[in-house]
Amino acid sequence: MMRSRSTRGWLIGGGGLVIVAVLAIIFVLGAHGGNEKGTRAIANNGGASHTLTPRYSAPPGEGHTSAQQLADNAKIAEANQANGAEWIQVEALNPPPPTVSASFPAISSTLRQGSDTYATTFVTELLDINFAKDTRSALLSWAQSELAPDSMPGTPSLASTRVLYGDLVGEPSPIPTASTWSMNAKHRVVWSVSDVSESVNPEWSSALATGWQPSDPLMVALDVTGTLTINQASHQAVSKPFSLELGLASAEYHHGYGAMSVDNWAEG
To answer: Mapping DSSP to helix (H, G, I), strand (E, B) and coil, where does residue 243 land?
Structure first.
């Protein structure tokens, strides 16, 4: 099993002062885990499943080429490449095809234009699960359809589109393991999400405050919180808070935001 999380240390220089900023969103791995999906949050794709084709264009490498930016990128790449063994594990993953379905439709174009609306919608659809009706494979295929490549300096090209999947099948993760999913289905467990809110991760803000800029203008790290309600036949509903760190960037298969990483899942 791959390591549950790995923080990325950044040595970002500013005016000769080296600042160490630890970015808390996951860039290497992690895995763990309702009601019917809310139609207001998703696009109407009918009943059939279908696989998507890429629309993503890699950010231009020359977007920010000041001497300080180039120096910062080199430091970030060096720190990132120090996780070489973990990147090898990411590259060895075999994600499912990026597929949307009636159970897990694509997020609408309108909702993916803002980081806040996208984050709320993504997390809600990720955790609104009727275990007896929904399948884990369909959820993971949908998540892969929502991915955003990791374009941080030093991220291997092959791994860049497998980070999100690695987060969701590692440990801990919002998505239950296959055996737990089956048990939840047997007991007719339903998850639903409410009160989702998000804020910019402080470490991300600190990194940007040094003057460094990501090549992808949509890249951002968010702290997301909410309430997870668990319903089960013949049992009283249980509600508990949850939190996670969500990395966003330009979507691979859509125009607008996509999910790059999910880290630090916690509930209760």
So the answer is: strand
Buried b (16+ CB within 10 A) or exposed e, 144-175: bbbbbbbbbbbbbeebbbbbbbbbbbbebbbb
Gap between the Cα atoms of 129 and 189, Å rounded: 8
DSSP state string for 123-173: HHHHH-EETTTS-HHHHHHHHHHTB-----TT--TTGGGTHHHHHHHSSSB
Report whether the peptide linkage leading into residue 153 is cis, meaning its omega lies within 30 degrees of zero: no
pLDDT at residue 19, rounded to an integer: 27
Report angle CA 223, 180, 158 to the nearest 5 degrees. Answer: 55
Distance of CA 116 to the CA centre of its chain: 14
At 141, which amino acid appears?
S
Residue 243 phi/psi, 5-degree rounding, is -150, 155
Q: Are 183 and 90 in contact (CB under 8 A)?
A: no
Full-model pTM: 0.81
In terms of Cβ atoms closer than 10 Å to its own Cβ (0-12, 13-18, 19+), residue 18 is: exposed
- Rounded-to-integer distance, Cα 98 and Cα 50, Å: 8
Q: Which residues of the chain have pLDDT under 50?
A: 1-48, 61-62
Residue 32 pLDDT: 29
pLDDT of residue 58: 55
Tokens (6 digits) for 131: 């275990």
